[in-house]
C-alpha cells in the first residue's frame, strides 16, 4: 500500500499557475516506483474526473482534453513524488485535486482514466481559480 499526501493547492486568479506535489510515504519506495500515477479532480456536485496520468517509468503520460497544453504531469521515482504543473488556469479547473496510485502497473501497461482502477488515494488539495 502507498500513502499519498498532496500539497500545493490554493486560491489563484484565472491565468495564473500552480504546481501540485504528491509525496508517497510509508512502505512507499518499491510500491511507488512500480505504480502508474494519476491526478483526478472533483468539483462540487460533480463526479471525480481524470485529469492526468503517468506510467510507472515516467515516459508515457495522458491528459483529459480540457487540460492538454496547459498541465504537465511528471514524476521522480527517486523522491517518491509525482507533480502536476498547471498553467493558464481557468475557473473550470476549480476543485479538489487528488493523486492516486495504480499498483498493478507491472501487469498492465495502460494508464487508466477510471478512478476504480486506482488502489491508493491521497486526501486531496483544494484548487480555487477566481475570475
3D shape: globular
Helix content class? under 10%
Structural class: mainly beta
Q: Radius of gyration in whole Å, from Cα? A: 14 Å
What is the terminal-to-terminal distance? 39 Å
Q: What is the β-strand count?
A: 11
Query: Can you write the helix and strand succession as a string?
Result: EEEHEEEEEEEE
Kindly estimate the percentage of residues that lie in beta strands according to DSSP. Answer: over 45%
Summarize the main sheet.
Answer: 7 strands, mixed
Report the total helices.
1
Q: Unreliable stretches, pLDDT < 50, 5 or more residues? A: none
Query: Would you tell me the overall average pLDDT?
Result: 94
Summarize the SSE layout with pairings.
Blueprint: E1 3-7, E2 10-13, E3 18-25, H1 28-33, E4 36-42, E5 49-54, E6 61-63, E7 71-76, E8 81-86, E9 95-102, E10 120-121, E11 125-130
Tell me what the structure shows.
It is a single chain. The chain has 131 residues and is mainly beta. 5% of the residues lie in helices and 47% in strands. Strands 2, 4, 5, 6, 9, 10 and 11 form a 7-stranded mixed β-sheet that branches. The chain has a 4-stranded antiparallel β-sheet with strand order 1-3-8-7. A hairpin with a 4-residue loop joins β7 (71-76) and β8 (81-86). The longest helix has 6 residues, at 28-33. The chain starts with a strand and ends with a strand.
What distinguishing features does this structure have?
single chain; 131 residues; seven-stranded mixed beta sheet; 1 helix; globular
Amino acid at each position: 500500500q502507498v500513502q499519498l499526501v498532496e500539497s500545493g493547492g490554493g486560491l489563484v486568479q484565472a491565468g495564473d499557475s500552480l504546481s501540485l506535489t504528491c509525496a508517497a510515504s510509508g512502505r512507499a519506495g518499491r510500491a511507488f516506483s512500480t505504480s502508474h500515477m494519476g491526478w483526478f479532480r472533483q468539483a462540487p456536485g460533480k463526479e471525480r474526473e481524470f485529469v492526468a496520468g503517468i506510467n510507472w517509468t515516467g515516459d508515457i503520460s495522458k491528459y483529459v482534453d480540457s487540460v492538454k497544453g496547459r498541465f504537465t504531469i511528471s514524476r521522480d521515482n527517486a523522491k517518491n513524488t509525482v507533480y502536476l504543473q498547471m498553467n493558464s488556469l481557468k475557473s473550470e479547473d476549480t476543485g479538489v485535486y487528488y493523486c492516486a496510485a495504480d499498483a498493478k502497473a507491472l501487469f498492465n501497461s495502460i494508464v487508466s482514466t477510471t478512478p476504480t482502477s486506482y488502489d491508493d488515494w491521497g486526501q486531496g488539495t483544494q484548487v480555487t481559480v477566481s475570475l
